[in-house]
Amino acid sequence: MIDLRSLVQRRQGFLFLPLVYRLAGRLEQMDWEELAEDATSSAYALHAAQRLFHLPALVSHFRIGVEAEACGADLGRDAEGDWARPRSLADPALLGTPALERPPLAQALEVTGRLSEELRGEAATIGVLSGPRTLSALFAAPPPGLAQFYATLARAYAERGAHLLLVAEDPRSAPQALSPGLSLAPLFNVASYFRLPTVLLDHAAAGPAPGFDLTLGGACGHALPLEVLEGPVEQANAWRQAGAPLLATAWEVPPRLPAEQLVAWIEALQ
After folding, report:
1. Are the C-beta atoms of residues 37 and 104 closer than 8 Å to each other?
2. Are 107 and 145 in contact (CB under 8 A)?
3. What does the longest C-alpha to C-alpha distance in the chain come to?
């Protein structure tokens, strides 16, 4: 089984993880609707990106807020699938196991299963979960079953072949404190059972987050800023040293980034 630890060891203690999702769709000339709603097309585009960039691991989707959308939220996504302010919030009563079977979360899980099957032996598949601070803000009221839902979603990713769980907090979300009663222990228990490393990408993090194998993006960890990725690659070695064992891009790689620019960074970091 491919996992984060074996990948890091195989690559001499360092792994670069560019988050390519919309870029993969753009390279295959797919619009947002096809990428997000057609699991077959989405898996094809992501697999093509993995081959093009020789990625040892890639996300099965990067649709932050998809769990809230499965519970009725309208995030007002634009033509490229991004959103800034939700039009309507999710219903807390809808959060639970049935949400896994409702669109668009059902499609995200289907892509994970298809991609992990297609990449078997080639690369690791990463399941993405919207962080608790981001997700809580997308509900009309604090969802009481959020902790258990994370465990349910983690199990669903594991059963579809994911090798790593990336919990991503939207950098635009206010860094307010979570409900005192919220614990991610059920998520970590499931991850431990399936031997899935857990990584937190959170630009507001002030230190290592308890329970996570790695915390990236904040003062405690390094992530590659997108503006750096768009510039020359002379500083690649410094970023390689600072970002070990795992250097992720600070957020999703811009869809309009020239493919050859990302290739240059990947080669420089190797």
Report:
1. yes
2. no
3. 51
Six-digit token string for 149: 């839902």
- Establish if 92 belongs to a structural domain: no
Which three-class secondary structure state does DSSP give residue 215? strand
Q: Do 204 and 220 contact (CB within 8 A), yes or no? A: no
Rounded percentage of the chain residues whose pLDDT exceeds 70 = 93
5 pLDDT band, cuts 50/70/90, is: low
Residue 46 tokens read as 């992501």
The residue with tokens 């988050």 is 19
Using the structure block, give the residue that is written with the tokens 């222990």.
Answer: 185
Output the six-digit token pair for 174: 């206010």
Residue 30 covered by a domain: yes
- Half-sphere exposure of residue 257: CA atoms within 13 angstroms, side-chain side: 24
CATH classification at residue 231: 3.20.20.210
Ramachandran class of 195: left when φ > 0, alpha when ψ lies in -120 to 50, beta otherwise? left
Contact call for residues 69 and 75 (beta carbons, < 8 A): yes
Q: What is the mean pLDDT of the chain?
A: 91
| 68 compared with 239, residue with greater pLDDT | 68
- Cα–Cα dist 115/166, whole Å: 16
Q: Which of 24, 30, 12 is nearest to 50 (CA)?
A: 24
Q: Report the pLDDT averaged over residues 162-189.
A: 83
Q: Is residue 154 part of a domain?
A: yes
Give the C-alpha separation, 69 to 31, whole Å: 19
